[in-house]
Amino acid sequence: MTSLLELAAEKKSADVTDWAARAGWVVGLLLFIALVYWLMREGWKWRGTLQGDLPELPSAPSEPGPVRLELTGRYHGSTTAGQWLDRIVAHGLGTRSRVELTLTDAGLDVVRPGAADFFIPAAQLREARLDKGIAGKVLAEGGLLIVTWEHGEKLLDSGFRSDHAAEQAEWVEAINNMINTSTTEGTAR
Asked: Whole-angstrom Cα distance, residue 57 to residue 90?
């Protein structure tokens, strides 16, 4: 019993914090985070270099014709068609942004504040569908409007999400009808 009392009476000092070791760990962690960020940035630039064969993006014609549909929402990126994880970063296609879409007889005008705008001519449109994901963004089934189009020798999928998700089905129908109409007109000649 006395040994417990003796232990309790013994004076102990609190553990001393080793500030130099702690500062070393913090600096090491910050350097590691900076290295990872730098490697990710270099990978993004390298991907853009590998996709350098992609031609410049077309711009909207001066007279696109009457407006069929308009949509505001988000642009989530473009990928190689059918490969929803193979992001295209060349010419700014990998940059997420707000978007204003306008569908006319001439094609699809993609206006992106803070990023490069582009135009998809009607002849380059291949398909429109509702899907659940594109590189870096996964939503509920049918949450994204995916437009497949040809650019250069490559088929691309571009993903959009409307501010009003209910209108996306109307876009799928309008784009696919436009594609089918131009295909039937092209074969009738």
From this structure: 10
The pTM of this model reads 0.74
What separation in angstroms does the CA of 25 have from each of 28, 30, 101? 5, 9, 49
pLDDT in tens, 127-141: 999 988 787 777 777
* Distance of alpha carbon 157 from alpha carbon 172, whole angstroms: 13
Residue-wise DSSP of 121-168: EGGGEEEEEEESEETTEE-STT-EEEEEEEETTEEEEEEEEESSGGGH
Q: Mean pLDDT across the stretch 50-62? A: 83
For 1, 3, 9, 10, the CA distances from 6, given in Å and listed in that order, are 9, 5, 5, 6
Dihedral angle, C-alpha 44, 154, 120, 124, nearest 10 °: -170
Dist. CA 166–CA 152, nearest whole Å: 32
Q: What is the pLDDT of residue 14?
A: 62
For residues 75 and 168, give the distance between their C-alpha atoms in angstroms, rounded to a whole number: 13
